[in-house]
Design a protein that fits this description.
The complex is a heterodimer of chains A (423) and B (263). In chain A, 61% of the residues lie in helices and 3% in strands. Chain A has 16 helices and four strands. In chain A, helix 3 runs antiparallel to helix 5 and helix 11 crosses helix 14. The longest helix of chain A is centred in the middle third of the chain and has 32 residues. With 263 residues, chain B is mainly alpha-helical. In chain B, strands 1-4 form a two-stranded antiparallel ribbon. Chain B has a two-stranded antiparallel sheet with strand order 2-3. The radius of gyration of chain B is 28 Å and the shape is extended. Classes of the chains: A mainly alpha (423), B mainly alpha (263). At the A-B interface, helix 4, strand 2, helix 10, helix 14 and helix 15 of A face helix 1 and helix 7 of B.
């Protein structure tokens, strides 16, 4: 951790305040002029700040939405239509919030894949990585519950399908589902508790984001070469160099985001969610939001029981196995620092791992496609292969490559190759 | 490396095969029409939307409600306050209770939503052979490829082909799921008399009513497109300015300037 530099403001009032609560020092030392940062961070390092921006945007737009929203099954859908139609600029706030969820996930998924490529989960950043995964899990819960609030057809049936998954858990499953529903079906109590939690969790996320940034401060930023900072020559001050670079990223990202908000507001949404929830009529296909599709594919891919061979004894029924596989697909990421014991962090110097990384990306896209399709024809087989490959990548390939892969020689320092490695 | 190649080939093969997955049998894809409100510069064709309002009032409104649409919203498609008042006054709506507590009615006002043709779902079903005519406020958004879908449904009636059996009380429509729709053919040539001399063919009536329903589903579209151009335009310029600033600021870094003598 870089040493802490206390700010000494010239202004007497500021100095007085700073002595009592060193908030200027805090900013300076975390994202300021006194934050030495590797000089070679590329554009993939922009997505952390972009995710942070989307969190703020979601909270601000969400709070405005709550001013007009009514969490009641009879009025929720109408209250949103009222907000969109009759409240000044409500249609912009609403579409920003709905599309903001998608862009939040885009930023976070790119941020995570960047971590996978450059080995950001490796020592000394294990806790930083795990806090990030906690944020991802909280985001998924928040997004799922948020999607229920408009009380459209997909809201209702998505909530029904996903909450029912918990019934697969032995012994306590049924009780958990009753607790989630607040009754014996998805109904008004469900909507109310989801609303309550959907408002709470973003602030929990904010708390974990603060820990995430703190952990980044302690272990310092990683960098594309994956080597440690060796001297002052390897670093530049965060401000103004990375503030302007992050600012440029923000402008580009927002330009794309606003293109969706203003010109394709329903591109990420399902048409069925413009139909008010109707417990008596099931939509043709219940498809989750795109950011859940790979996990949904893993869930649906498991269609076989695990039992004792040559008997009818079922140890793990297919439904439970699917649920386990889905949760395991994220939970196993917590163990990456130990699954991948290779000392070389960056995939730049790992000729085989860098290729396997891209296969994983393709695999996740294939799973996403599978999750969006009816499970018929080739789709279930594709899902099973994709699921198997996903676990194969993390549980077999990573530990194997960590031991066997012949890594390339590492550069001497960040400052040294920074000029010639301008590729 | 052989290992990598094997996996690559396997993955490519699997992905390739997925393309040959059989598509499920379904209704015909909607006809693809051109709509003035599509695209980033798209705006509503107001005369057509106004004619669509007439078609809705004279035909659709006999069975379908439009609960999120208020008479006052008609000002956005070019109607004057007097005309809107006149439209609203044609309807009688519940007016609360009088001093002795008895329910009363009053003429509609611009602030009222379009009154529904039936008092409740049961009344609507009873009058329509058991089927419930959906509210049309969001119909264009609530269907995939909405404008084309609604247009196609309105023009998708015809003789029942041989081999297709349509249950009693249903009608053949090749664009509807299952080919059998409860709604009888709603529009046909000459059904509505236009004041502006536009030919009142079935296609024209359908086109106008789809324009109207698209406006009802997304009444802020014109403002959204206008503001959006400003917002995205600003962000692109801002990105350009920040890019140039970044390049200028970063010049010493790129030239290898050392900021910390001693780490």
């Amino acid at each position: 951790m870089a040493e802490w530099k206390a700010a000494k403001p010239q202004n007497k009032a500021l100095a007085w305040f700073e002595e009592r609560l060193p908030i200027i020092s805090l900013v300076n030392n975390v994202v300021g002029k006194d934050t030495p940062t590797p000089r070679n961070l590329n554009y993939w390092w922009n997505f952390g700040s972009l995710a942070g921006l989307m969190l703020v945007l979601q909270i601000v737009t969400g709070i405005v939405l709550v001013m007009h929203y009514t969490p009641n099954t009879a009025m929720a859908f109408d209250s949103i239509e009222h907000f969109v139609r009759d409240v000044n600029y409500g249609y912009i706030i609403r579409t920003m919030h709905a599309n903001g969820a998608s862009f939040f996930f885009i930023a976070v998924y790119i941020h995570i894949f960047r971590g996978l490529y450059y080995g950001s989960y490796k020592a000394p950043r294990e806790v930083l990585w795990m806090l990030g995964l906690v944020i991802l899990l909280l985001m998924m819960a928040t997004a799922f519950m948020g999607y229920v609030l408009p009380w459209g057809q997909m809201s209702f049936w998505g909530a029904t399908v996903i909450t029912s998954l918990f019934s697969a858990i032995p012994v306590v499953g049924k009780s958990i589902v009753t607790l989630l529903w607040g009754g014996f079906s998805v109904d008004n109590p469900t909507l109310n508790r989801f609303f309550s939690l959907h408002y709470l969790l973003p602030f929990v996320i904010t708390g974990v984001v603060i820990l995430h940034i703190w952990a980044k401060k302690v272990s310092d930023s990683g960098n594309p070469l994956g080597i440690d900072v060796k001297s002052g020559a390897d670093q530049i001050p965060f401000h103004p160099y990375y503030t302007v670079k992050d600012g440029f990223g923000v402008a580009v990202f927002l330009a794309i985001f606003m293109t969706f908000v203003f010109f394709m507001p329903d591109a990420f949404g399902a048409a069925d969610n413009f139909i008010p929830a109707n417990p008596m009529s099931t939509p043709d296909s219940i498809v989750p939001e795109w950011y859940f599709l790979p996990f949904y594919a893993i869930l649906r891919s498991i269609t076989f029981n695990i039992g004792i061979p040559f008997t009818d004894i079922v140890l793990i029924p297919a439904k439970l196995l699917g649920v386990i596989a889905m949760f395991a697909s994220i939970l196993l990421l917590f163990f990456l620092p130990w699954l991948d014991s290779c000392k070389v962090r960056s995939a730049k110097f790992r000729p085989v791992y860098s290729k396997m990384f891209w296969f994983l990306v393709v695999d996740v896209f294939v799973l996403g496609y599978v999750g969006s399709q009816h499970p018929e024809g080739i789709v279930p087989m594709l899902g099973l292969i994709g699921t198997a490959y996903y676990f194969f990548h993390f549980l077999v390939l990573m530990p194997y490559l960590a031991r066997k892969e012949k890594t390339l020689p590492l550069p001497e320092s960040i400052a040294n190759p920074v000029i010639k490695a301008a590729e | 490396m052989k290992f990598v190649k094997t996996i690559a080939i396997a993955l490519t093969a699997v992905v390739g095969m997925s393309g040959t997955a059989l598509a499920a049998e379904g209704p015909e894809h909607p006809m693809q029409m051109e709509w003035s409100f599509e695209g980033p510069f798209g705006q509503f064709d107001l005369p057509s939307v106004q004619r669509g309002w007439q078609v809705f009032r004279e035909v659709c409104a006999n069975c379908h409600s439009l609960k999120y649409f208020h008479f006052r919203n008609l000002s956005a498609i070019g109607y004057e306050p007097d005309m809107i008042k006149a439209f609203a006054a044609e309807y009688t709506v519940p007016g609360g209770v009088d001093d002795s507590g008895d329910p009363v009615t009053r003429p509609g006002r611009p602030a009222d939503a379009i009154p529904a043709p039936f008092a409740n779902e049961q009344a609507a079903r009873a009058a329509n052979g058991g089927a419930l005519p959906p509210d049309l406020s969001l119909i264009v958004k609530a269907r995939e490829d909405g404008p084309n879908y609604v247009y196609s449904i309105l023009n998708g009636y015809g003789e029942t082909p041989a081999g297709v059996s349509i249950p009693d009380g249903k009608h053949f429509n090749k664009y509807f799921k299952g080919d059998a729709i409860s709604m009888p053919q709603p529009l046909s040539d000459g059904m509505v008399d236009y004041q502006d001399g536009t030919p009142n063919t079935q296609e024209q009536l359908s086109k106008d009513v789809v324009n109207f329903l698209s406006f009802v589903a997304d009444p802020h579209l014109p403002a959204r497109h206008r503001i959006g151009l400003g917002v995205v335009g600003f962000l692109v310029i801002w990105a350009f300015v920040l890019y140039r600033s970044m390049k200028k600021l970063w010049k010493p870094v790129k030239e290898g300037k050392n900021f910390y003598e001693d780490a």
